[in-house]
Structure formats: structure tokens, C-alpha cells
Amino acid sequence: MVAFAANSLLCREALASGGIGAASFTLIRLVSGATFLWLLVGLRQRTWAVGGDWLSALALFGYAAGFSFAYVGLSAGTGALLLFGAVQITMIAHGLRAGERLTAWQAVGALAAFAGLVWLVLPGVQAPPLLGAVLMIGAGIAWGVYSLRGRGGASPIRATTGNFVRSVPLALGLFAVVHVSGLQEPMAAQGVFYAVASGALASGLGYALWYAVLPALRATTAATLQLSVPIIAALGGVLLLGEALTLRFGVATLAVLGGLLVFILSRLAPHDFGQAFEFSKSGDIRDESP
């Protein structure tokens, strides 16, 4: 969870310090992640073949690009909360569209989480920049789609590796468009270091650790653990980046994470909360964390 929160901290610090541009950060992050994961698969599984597909790679690229451009104006904690909330709401909406039913407590939790996101982005003195918020919510939707497409795969690390590799030419295209348009992006050594760390360590190593511990966790335990990511990112932003916690962010955090926690826990007590909302038995939380 610290590794996942570190993505927000590294991206925010890299862009806020002016050490690198969003398109450059996206490209270096995806190249670094693809390289690390490809080497990991080759060394551990004695094969250089990877999985994945182009539609999943497009969703991964959409997440990474939206994530980077959103953090031009968002704080680390706000960005993580928007991202995490959008991912979970996307996956809940998919379940509803597939014909699954919510109990009363699950409906309360889902509505509270959605209301928290709406409250966070409503116009006001403490509201985050609208464009950044929209981009981060879009990134969360893209990651939710990516997670749904990757559920139940036989080898999630190989699939993720293949999707990272396929996302690189898409990131190159974005990089070329930005630079052809005349926009000059900085690329200082410090910014490049943050991008490499985000791709190879926070993303590549973080995913490898996540997939290693998932077999020992119940799906609901894994989902509950992920509620800590926005909190870790917010605390890291305060302690490491000098960001301030606002009342609006606090209220939104309680609504979003509290609502999602009610939604998850309602699945653990069917006698008290009614029939649980079920994703597929193949592992609904397998690919869910950015």
C-alpha cells in the first residue's frame, strides 16, 4: 500500500518541482515499469513471453496519462482519493450493469462514496482544480476498466508486463504530440529519477509484491487494505511535500472511504446486512490498485 501511495507522492513532487513534464513522466514511468516487470518475469519464470492485450494496454495508458496530467494541479492526497474512489465506483457500476443487486447497506455505502467525490469537486475556495479533478476521475475509470479486463487471468504479472510493454508506443505518441505542438517540457535529472522510481519501484515492484501476497489474503481483506492508500498518500503529502489538509478533504475522505468500508464489510456479515454483493470467484481485487 505504501508503494501504491508512493506513486502519487513521486508524481506530485516531480511535477510540482518543475523537474519534468507530465508527458515525459508518463513515458519514463511506463518504460521503467515495462523494463522492470519484463526482467522480473524472465528471471523468475524462465520465459520472456508476456501476456496482455491492446485494449487493456490502452486502458493502462489512459490511467497513466490522466494520472500524470492531473497531478499538475492536485495535491497528493486529493489525487489519490479521487483516483481510488473512481476505481471502486467504476467496478461497482460494472457489477450493477451486469445484473448484480445491492443490499440496503451496500447502496448506502456506494451513495456515500459517490457523494464524497461530488462534495470534493464542488466549486468553492477549497475545491481542487476542476480540470485536474476531471482528469484524475478519468484515470480512475480507466484503471477500473483495466482491472475488470484483467480479473481471473492465469498469470497476472505476465499480463501486466505485456500491457506495460504495449503502452510504451502509446506514451511515445503522446510525448511526440506534446513536443510537436510546441510545448516545452523540462526534463531535469531529479524529475527523471522520480519517474523511474515511480515506474520501476512504486509500480513494478509494488505490483510484484501485491501479487505475491494476494494468495494469502481474502478478497475482502485485500479490498479493506486498499482503503489505506489515500490516507497514506495524504499523510505523505503533509509530511514530505508540505501540503495542507483541508476540512473539505477531511469530510470527503470520511464519506468516500467510510462508504466503501461499509460496502465491503456488508459482504462479511450477510445475516446483518443482507445478501452480499458478489464479483466473480476468480478474484475481484486482483488488479485493482494503481
Count of the domains:
1
Kindly provide the radius of gyration, computed on alpha-carbon positions and rounded to a whole number of angstroms.
18 Å
Order of helices and strands: HHHHHHHHHHHH
Largest sheet: none
Overall pLDDT metric? 82
| Separation of the first and last Cα atoms | 10 Å
| Helix vs. strand class | mainly alpha
| Binned strand content | under 5%
Q: Can you give the helix content as a percent range? A: over 70%
Give the tally of β-strands. 0
Number of helices: 12
Shape by Cα distribution: globular
The poorly predicted ranges are: 270-289
InterPro entries: AA-Vitamin_Transporters, EamA_dom, EmrE-like
Keywords: Membrane, Transmembrane, Transmembrane helix
Domain EamA: 131-264
Organism: Halothiobacillus diazotrophicus
Q: What does this 3D model show about the protein?
A:
With 290 residues, the chain is mainly alpha-helical. It has one domain. The protein has twelve helices and no strands. The longest helix has 25 residues. It starts with a helix and ends in a 17-residue tail after the last helix. The C terminus is likely disordered. Pfam families: EamA. It is found in: Membrane.
